Amino acid sequence: MGVQAALPVALMTGLLFVANSGVVPLYEAVVSQLLSSGQGVDPARYGRVRVWGSIGFIVSVTAFGALLEWRGIAIFPAFVALMNALLLVAALRLPRTRAEGRHDQPPPPALHLLRRPALAWFFASIFFTVLAHTALYAFFSLYVVELGYGKAAVGALWAVSVAVEIAFFWTQGQWFPLLSPHRWLLVAALVTALRFVAIAAGGAWMPVLLLAQAAHALTFAAHHAACIALLNRYFPGRLRGRGQALYTMLGYGLPGVLGGLAGGWLVTHQGFAAVFWAAALCAVAGWGCARRARRHEFTAD
Q1: If we measure between CA atoms, which residue out of 210, 222, 186, 194 comes closest to residue 280?
Q2: How far out from the chain centre does Cα 180 lie?
């Protein structure tokens, strides 16, 4: 594909991410408000809603793969436009929510909020734990192929991770109350470190890779559920949108960019395994930050 042919695809991709970067925080804020009570977000109800994001991922990837086989990459802009149109329809059908409290004063600046120790350590833990996962999202398939596995094996490994993610979200009402959200962050970061050590050191053995992918239930699903619970605590009422925006930016946008760049450099100079060793170290850093956040736990005003 030449530069001129790729330009519409690049433009559509950019518009897609610009749109999603605004939609996701607002959607999560609305869902949190609708599913919240005096005890915070209801984990069982939230899991039953969030699971559809995982199901949608499977359906969209499968459908787009079939479209690529049928029409080629030229179908990409039309597919994205259709998805955004469906997103608009869904957004217009969202239940109306009522503002909580009076808005006589503007919300505090984001940097002011991040000066609070518990909040700063909380976002630092998210940053490092998600940064570790960048190795998975960007390089896992390439690494597995380099180890000699076929496309069917790669697909099966990803299917395992999505299946356990769906299973956790669907049943999280049973598991999530067993630990506090901060403890779930600690568990998720620790299992993330072990997961990437296993991938780096034992990637030649399929049972190790299957077990590592099954850990996705804890490293992603449980981690995300804990983050949503704590965001609802730290950013109540009219601050929910701001909290979700910070979560998207500091927890996914920034780690995604830095992880992709640093991971690419590591692959070029040290190989794929080095990326997963580095990811394990990032997860350990995330565990340390989560531990500090738990010490400074507080409820935002």
Answers
A1: 194
A2: 20
For 16, the token pair is 């897609």
- The per-residue pLDDT for range 173-219, each reduced to its tens digit, is 898 999 999 999 999 999 999 999 999 999 999 999 999 999 999 99
- The answer to whether 183 and 218 are in contact (CB under 8 A) is no
Residue 37 pairs in a beta bridge with: 40
The neighbour count for residue 282, using CB atoms within 10 Å, is 25
Task: Report which residue type is found at 94.
Answer: L
pLDDT at 299 exceeding the cut of 60: no
pLDDT at site 120: 92
Q: Set out the domains of the chain in order of their start, with CATH numbers.
A: 3-96+110-295 (1.20.1250.20)
What is the DSSP annotation of 18-49? HHHHHHHHHHHHHHHHHTEETTEE-HHHHHHH
